[in-house]
Amino acid sequence: MVADVIGQTAPVNLIQTGSTQGLTELPPHLDLVDPDPFAGPDHPMRVITREVAFDGVWNAERAARVAQVFDSMASDWSVKNIDETKAAPIADGLDRGEVPLDGRWLELGSGTGAGTIVASDRVSSLVAFDLAAEMLANAPAGLAPRVRGDASRLPFGDNVFDGVLMVNMLLFPHEVARVLTAAGAVLWVNTLGDQTPIHLPPADVSAALPGTWVGLASRAGSGFWTALRRSANT
C-alpha cells in the first residue's frame, strides 16, 4: 500500500516559474539545498495531484484510499518529515510571501504538524485540517484546533479565511478559493521541490485556481513556496 504512494525516480527541475502569469520569482533563501531524488512525474501521487487540481477527479473511494495510506504512515511520519530543511520553505513563504499573518488561517493537509509547528508561531489564528485521523492524532497538541474532513467539501463558510496553507497537499482549487476572503492568500509549499510526491509547480497552482491570481515564489531549504492572491482585475 505504501509503495503506491512513495517511489524513486530521476530528478527534474526544482522550480518552474518566472514572471509569467502574474508570478514573480524572488531570489532563493541562502539555506537552499537540492532535494534528494525521490518522486518524479510518473509517481502515482503526482498523477492524482494533477487529476484533482485540473480535472476534479475525486470521489469517496479515492478519499478512503488516500486516508488509509496516510493513516498507515502516521506513527513515524513526523520523524521522517519534520526537520529544519523541510520547514525552511514554509517559514520563508510566511516571511517573504507578503501574506496576511494577522488574519485567520486554514492549513489543509496538516498531517502530523510540519506546517502547523511553523505557522502557529507566525499567524494570529490557525485551524489544522486533514483527511487522515491518525495523522491528526500524531500531531502536536495545543498548537491549533484539529479538524478531520475531506478538503473537496470543506465544512466552512464562504470567505472566512485570510490565508490557506498547503504543505505537500492536494489542491482542491474551487474549495480553496471559496473559503478565502477576497483579499486572502494561498501559500503552497513543496518541501522537496519537484521531488515531492504531491507536487505542482507554482504556475500550475496559479492556473488551477479559478480566476486570475498573482503572487510570489521562491526556494528555501530543500523545497519551494508560492504565495498567491486574486488579481485586482478578477
Description:
- By secondary structure, the chain is of the alpha/beta class.
- The protein has a single domain (2-11, 21-230), classed as Vaccinia Virus protein VP39 (Rossmann fold, 3-Layer(aba) Sandwich), CATH 3.40.50.
- The protein contains 7 helices and 8 strands, in the order βαααβαβαββαβαββ.
- It has helices spanning 44-55, 60-81, 84-96, 114-119, 133-137, 173-179, 202-208; strands spanning 23-25, 104-108, 125-130, 146-148, 161-167, 180-190, 213-220, 223-230.
- An 8-stranded mixed beta sheet has the order 1-7-8-6-5-2-3-4.
- The longest helix has 22 residues, at 60-81.
- It is globular.
- The termini are far apart.
- The model is unreliable at 1-20 (pLDDT under 50).
The CATH class:
Alpha Beta
Largest sheet: 8 strands, mixed
The level of helicity is 25-40%
CATH architecture: 3-Layer(aba) Sandwich
State Rg. Answer: 16 Å
How confident overall, as mean pLDDT?
87
Q: Going across the biggest sheet, name each strand in turn.
A: 1-7-8-6-5-2-3-4
Class from helix and strand fractions: alpha/beta
In terms of per-residue confidence, which ranges show pLDDT below 50 for 5 or more consecutive residues?
1-20
Report the span from N to C terminus: 42 Å
Predict the CATH topology.
Answer: Rossmann fold
Q: Kindly report the name of the CATH homologous superfamily.
A: Vaccinia Virus protein VP39
Per DSSP E runs of 2 or more residues, the count of β-strands stands at 8
Number of helices: 7
Secondary-structure element order, N to C: EHHHEHEHEEHEHEE
What fraction of residues sit in β-strands? 15-25%
The best one-word shape is globular
Number of domains: 1
